Every structure is written in C-alpha cells, then in structure tokens.
UniProtKB/TrEMBL annotation:
Highest taxon in the source lineage: Eukaryota
BP-aspect Gene Ontology terms: protein transport; vesicle-mediated transport
Organism: Chelydra serpentina
One Pfam family of this chain: Sec1
InterPro entries named in the record: Sec-1-like_dom3a, Sec1-like, Sec1-like_sf
Protein name in UniProt: Vacuolar protein sorting 45
Keywords: Protein transport, Transport
UniProt record similarity statement: Belongs to the STXBP/unc-18/SEC1 family.
Length: 161
C-alpha cells in the first residue's frame, strides 16, 4: 500500500475488513468438543495476527483521512493537478486564490500552490504573480516561505517584504 493513492488504499482496507469479517464468525464458533478446541487453538494465532493487521491499517488510514480533511488536501491536490496539466489560466488563478483564502490550507500548501502557478504561468500575459504574493502575505505566510516562492521566479523577489 505504500505507493498507492488514497482511494486505492481505502479499497484495500475495505477488502481486508471484509475478509476479516468473513473469517471472524468461524473463529468464534462455540467450542463443544476436543476437535473444536484443537481447531480454535490452531487458528487463534492467525486470527490474532489478522486482527492486528486490520487494526493497524484502519488506524493509519483513519489518520491519513483526518489529515486530508484537516488540511483540505483533496482540493489542494486537485488544484495542483490542474496547475500541472491544464492550460486554463482563469480557472487556475481563481482556484489558487480561493484556496489561499481558506483557513484550512497551511502556509506550506499555499506556498506550493503559488510556486506551481508561477512556474506554469510566469510568461502568461495576464499572470497575477504579485497579487498571489500579496495573498500569501495577507494569509500570514512566513517570510521564509514567501522567499522560497519568490526564488522560483526571479521577477517576484521584490514582493517578499
């Protein structure tokens, strides 16, 4: 799962949970005979191991989901993809400005969005790089991050302070 995208990980966890639930009733049947006891004892370590694996994966995916929601990462990544692969300047500019105004978007993510915009639209006749740099400042993005954004496109160096 390490290199899969978020949706694929979710699907794998769902399949793991379904497999775990299918096996669980068999493992928890009443133990009525010596053969039942023997089968239970033989299968218990496998069940315990699977239980731990399911628990670990559900915990990790839960934390990833919390972070994605907390930082608005699904929307941020969608705009990053648009900046990298599309040529609709108006839409890209609107989306970047909207996200810069969103309090959930961290200064790191905001800076990255502005840098991608700068790289893609540096030579566009109606680029709005100075305005986006001002938006970063208004958002409270530290000077350190604004310097990083300005370093991507030299013409922005005067917009850091």
């Amino acid at each position: 799962n390490m290199y899969l995208n978020f949706a694929e990980i979710g699907s794998n966890i769902k399949n793991l949970m379904e497999d775990f639930q299918r096996r669980k009733p068999k493992e928890q049947q009443k133990v009525e005979s010596i053969a039942d006891m023997k089968a239970f004892v033989e299968n218990y370590p496998q069940f315990k191991k699977m239980s731990g694996t399911v628990s670990k994966h559900v915990t990790v995916v839960g934390e990833l989901s919390r972070l994605a929601s907390e930082r608005n990462l699904l929307e941020v990544s969608e705009v990053e993809q648009e900046l990298a692969c599309q040529n609709d300047h108006s839409s890209a500019h609107q989306n970047v400005r909207r996200l810069l105004q969103n309090p959930k978007v961290t200064e790191f993510d905001a800076t990255r969005l502005v840098m991608l915009y700068a790289l893609h639209y540096e030579r566009h006749s109606s680029n709005s790089l100075p305005g986006l740099m001002m938006d970063l400042k208004n958002k409270g993005v530290s000077e350190k991050y604004r310097k990083v954004a300005a370093a991507v496109v030299p013409v922005l160096e005067g917009w850091v302070k």
